[in-house]
């Protein structure tokens, strides 16, 4: 990856390289953001990742440049170009959520808390990235802005719901993107675009002043980047509790202090879940990647995930259905212009009885208890980030994986349970498929062990630097 002093254009530089160059006085934030804007103008017509740009970003970049000249940067994030997923509220840009009902909705009075923290830290918010309607899909398309395409192959999807975010970072539009992950929406798209995608523990980054929750407490905010160090940089600035967010207080209390390991990390590698089909290229790449963890000194055991997640997996569609039903009841005007698919989902949610919801909540609590016991035996769980390679860009999901018919969540079997359990997880690039399509390995840790997960991911990245590949865009 480009480092300070390279002759490569600044849009190719990592966030950490830019930050170092700012401190050394070799590069300015104005120069960096101008390079990113030029790249966006060049490639966004092909990938359709950005749906809005901020004219004020140049003023912000000038202010950041002056802070560095004075030796007074606001944070490690100061001056770094950043995109915001279009389901995170921004005070100076509309938040459409991919929904026609929200298109004319004026910007809210304030930023959502993680966005506010990024802005206060001096990040250069360049614009907002495309999402599927209500961010409830594993691909990226909506009635407002259309389909987003994968920079590695423009006929294919970058995944979803953070599809615009990962496509933009992979294409060099910004070195960092801020998104959400409610069932894999950071990790799977990152794996489809050759990026690092980090889903923190529930509450690690406090939430507030955002859109209604559709996925209980499963959805968290997290970074996407080209390097683990870049993702960690943004996470460190944004993490921390807020008194109004009790989940953030709990996570802050559970945060594990960094300690030098006294024994090898114990890793359980899980090739598949409940015999779900997985693309052979993914199985092969992730098996090799799991073996490389041994080269880091880890003790790796291959086996099944000893958690009863089958019932929760069957109940998964109910979560979004109930969430939509509740939201449409509170804001009927949003239902009126929603696509028929989502109105139908809400109708299904309205039909769900209280007993079914109670059973779902009990299953989630039991999963969280079971995970606490599991991590008494293992330090990390490793598994593929996605069961399928990227598929045609305008198709919601691949209907066949490894020769077997699958449903809408067939490609997503590895991620949703992690959200329900509230655990930290990161997707890191592995060796690509024979055709060059990216593949990701997912590393999952116990609740509150966000730093340990990133430490192992960074060590793996140094050993297997697949993040240095660039799409042929």
Elements, N to C (H/E) = HHEHEHEHEHEEHHEHEHHHHEEEHEEH
**Quaternary structure classification:** single chain
Question: Which structural class do you get from the secondary structure elements?
Answer: alpha/beta
- What is the total domain count? 1
Shape: globular
The name of the CATH topology is Amidase signature (AS) enzymes
Measured between the Cα atoms of the first and last residue, the distance is 17 Å
Beta-strand content: 5-15%
**CATH domain class name:** Alpha Beta
Q: Describe the largest sheet.
A: 11 strands, mixed
- What count of helical segments does DSSP give? 15
What strand order characterises the main sheet? 1-3-2-4-6-5-12-13-9-7-8
Helicity range:
25-40%
Tell me about this structure.
The structure is a single chain. With 473 residues, this protein is an alpha/beta fold. The chain has 15 helices and 13 strands. Helix 4 links the parallel strand 2 and strand 3. Helix 2 runs antiparallel to helix 3, helix 10 crosses helix 12 and helix 10 packs across helix 13.
How is this fold's topology laid out?
Blueprint (H helix, E strand, L loop, with lengths): L14 H10 L4 H19 L2 E4 L3 H13 L11 E5 L27 H8 L3 E6 L33 H8 L5 E6 L5 H7 L2 E4 L20 E6 L2 H11 L7 H9 L11 E4 L10 H16 L3 E4 L7 H21 L1 H5 L3 H11 L3 H21 L5 E5 L15 E2 L2 E2 L10 H6 L3 E5 L10 E5 L5 H14 L10
Parallel strand pairs: 2-3, 2-4, 7-8, 7-9
Antiparallel strand pairs: 1-3, 4-6, 5-6, 5-12, 9-13, 10-11, 12-13
Helix pairs in contact: 2-3, 10-12, 10-13
């Amino acid at each position: 990856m480009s480092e300070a002093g390279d002759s490569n254009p600044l849009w190719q530089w990592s966030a950490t390289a830019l930050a170092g160059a700012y401190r050394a006085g070799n590069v300015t934030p104005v120069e960096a953001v101008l390079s990113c804007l030029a790249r966006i103008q060049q490639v966004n017509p092909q990938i359709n990742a950005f749906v809005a740009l901020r004219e004020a970003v140049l003023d912000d970049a000038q202010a950041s440049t002056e802070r560095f000249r004075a030796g007074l940067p606001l944070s490690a994030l100061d001056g770094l170009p950043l995109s915001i997923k279009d389901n995170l509220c921004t005070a100076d840009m509309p938040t459409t959520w991919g929904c026609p009902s929200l298109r004319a909705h004026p910007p809210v009075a304030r930023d959502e808390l993680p966005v506010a923290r990024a802005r206060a830290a001096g990040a250069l918010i360049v614009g907002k990235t495309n999402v599927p309607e209500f961010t409830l899909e594993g691909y990226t398309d909506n009635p407002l802005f259309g389909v987003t395409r994968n920079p590695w192959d423009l006929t294919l999807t970058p995944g979803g719901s953070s599809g615009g975010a990962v496509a933009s970072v992979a294409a060099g539009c910004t070195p960092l993107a801020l998104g959400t992950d409610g069932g894999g929406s950071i990790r799977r798209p990152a794996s489809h675009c050759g990026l690092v995608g980090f889903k923190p523990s529930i509450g690690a980054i406090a939430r507030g002043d955002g859109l209604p929750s559709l996925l209980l407490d499963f959805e968290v905010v997290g970074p996407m980047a080209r390097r683990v160090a870049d993702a960690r940089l943004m996470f460190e600035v944004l993490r921390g509790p807020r008194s109004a967010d009790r989940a953030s207080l709990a996570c802050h209390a559970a945060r594990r202090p960094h300690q030098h390991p006294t024994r090898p990390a114990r890793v359980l590698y899980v090739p598949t879940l409940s015999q779900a089909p997985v693309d052979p290229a993914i199985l092969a790449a992730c098996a090799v990647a799991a073996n490389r963890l041994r080269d880091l000194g880890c003790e790796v055991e291959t086996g099944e995930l000893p958690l009863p997640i089958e019932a929760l997996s069957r109940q998964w569609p109910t979560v979004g259905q109930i969430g939509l039903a509740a939201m449409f009841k509170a804001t009927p005007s949003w239902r009126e212009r929603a696509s028929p698919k989502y109105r139908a989902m809400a109708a299904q949610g309205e039909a769900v009885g209280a007993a079914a919801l109670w059973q779902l909540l009990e299953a989630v609590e039991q999963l969280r208890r079971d995970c606490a016991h599991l991590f008494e035996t293992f330090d990390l769980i490793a598994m593929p980030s996605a069961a399928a390679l990227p598929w045609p860009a305008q198709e919601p999901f691949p209907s066949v994986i490894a020769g077997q018919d699958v449903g809408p969540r067939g490609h997503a079997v590895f991620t949703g349970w992690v959200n329900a359990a509230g655990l930290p997880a990161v997707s890191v690039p592995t060796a690509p498929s024979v055709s060059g399509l990216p593949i990701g390995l997912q590393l999952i840790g116990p609740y509150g062990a966000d730093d340990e997960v990133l430490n192992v991911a960074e060590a793996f990245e140094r050993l297997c630097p697949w993040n240095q590949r660039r799409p042929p865009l």
